[in-house]
Amino acid sequence: MEGKRTRFQSESQPQSVILLTKIKEFTRALLADLTNGRSPLILIDRFRSYCTLSNSNCFCASDLPCGKELLTLRRKSHAHRLAVMLRVMLIVQKLLQENKHSSKRDIYYTYPSVFLDQSVVDQAINDICILMQCSRHNLNVVSAGNGLIMGWIRFSEGERIFDCISSPNTAHPVPVHVEEVQDIISLAQYILVVEKESVFQRLANDQFCNANHCIVITGRGYPDIPTRRFLRLLVENLCLPAYCLVDCDPYGFDILTTYRFGSMQMAYDTKHLRVPEIQWLGAFPSDSERYFVPNQCLLPLTAEDKRKVEAMLLRCYLEREVPQWRLELQLILQRGVKFEIEALSVHALSFLSESYIPSKIEGKLIM
Ligand SMILES: [Zn+2]
């Protein structure tokens, strides 16, 4: 991992200097416009991780912007958006100058009466990243980190050592400063990503990692940025297959696509966040028959579930990159039922760790 360390250090040092220069240039240009009586025009690239064009003749996989937004002080909503952006930029400048880190939530609480809502701050951070062509962590804005990891891996994050190998069934938090992760040593054969913490805990209780040489990660629902960046780092560095286990419902499927294709909100940074190698281990709609899930464990889709599935079926990347996933998604709609991963444990508590997951991997029942 020596090469990695040098690369990170030489990249991260000038990055903050480059960003500080860009911020200065941006505000200077804005001031020049205002002092000369011109209304500033700010162009912000727009990105999307998918579209719903039926012919799939789109450029969503290209990582290029799909258009531009024009901000001008002549529109009141734009003026407010710009005012928020400048305030957030000021905070970011301070963070970079002092080499400190902050969360989106902390930033919101610096001026709650101005920002009014967290989503306003989130949008400003995204706008700044797009303008400065960087990732969120480059602004020293990081999330608290929700993810958990266990298994056959050891690594360090700065001074901190994460020695998961010494007790492979104990949960550790996913590191927040992923760019500082180095010295990764692993004896694992694959990485298993599970949607839910309850399933992660079930596997920990079953000593799953003792019986199976693997790494288990959970984002605890929709994965945050550190979890996705860390998973990507592991897949790239260790060249291990990665499997994803989610509920057989629209939310589980959406979480699966977030890992593989990225989210719409972070579309501008998808190229650093997605894990195209991730494969779907389950639960497939067809698993309910294959593994004899009783009818009482199958829940009817709600009207909202159906709307969500119908909307997801239109996403261009499904037809283009994983048509077999799309067929399974269609099957959820056709059957009109969903089930949780835990429903598979109806016959035995350790069914997931002793039968389901190993049989899926050995039998290559993944897609
Ligand atoms: Zn598209």
Automatic annotation (TrEMBL):
Q: Where is the active site?
A: 109
Q: Which parts of the sequence belong to the Spo11/DNA topoisomerase VI subunit A N-terminal domain?
A: 80-141
Which cofactors go with this protein?
Mg(2+)
Which reaction is this enzyme known to catalyze?
A: ATP-dependent breakage, passage and rejoining of double-stranded DNA
Q: Which SUPFAM superfamilies match?
A: DNA topoisomerase IV, alpha subunit
Q: Which Pfam families match?
A: TOP6A-Spo11_Toprim (PF21180), TP6A_N (PF04406)
GO-annotated cellular components: nuclear chromosome
Q: Which UniProt keywords apply?
A: DNA-binding, Isomerase, Magnesium, Metal-binding, Nucleus, Topoisomerase
Q: Name one GO molecular function term.
A: metal ion binding
Which GO BP annotation is one of this protein's?
Answer: meiotic DNA double-strand break formation
Which residue intervals define the domain Topoisomerase 6 subunit A/Spo11 TOPRIM in the entry? 190-361
Superkingdom of the organism of origin = Eukaryota
- State its Enzyme Commission number(s): 5.6.2.2
Give the protein family: Belongs to the TOP6A family.
The family database entries (PANTHER family) matched by this protein are listed as:
MEIOTIC RECOMBINATION PROTEIN SPO11, MEIOTIC RECOMBINATION PROTEIN SPO11-1
Protein's UniProt name: DNA topoisomerase (ATP-hydrolyzing)
- Name the species this protein comes from: Glycine max (Soybean)
Q: What is the lineage of its organism?
A: Eukaryota, Viridiplantae, Streptophyta, Embryophyta, Tracheophyta
Question: What gene does this protein come from?
Answer: LOC100813920
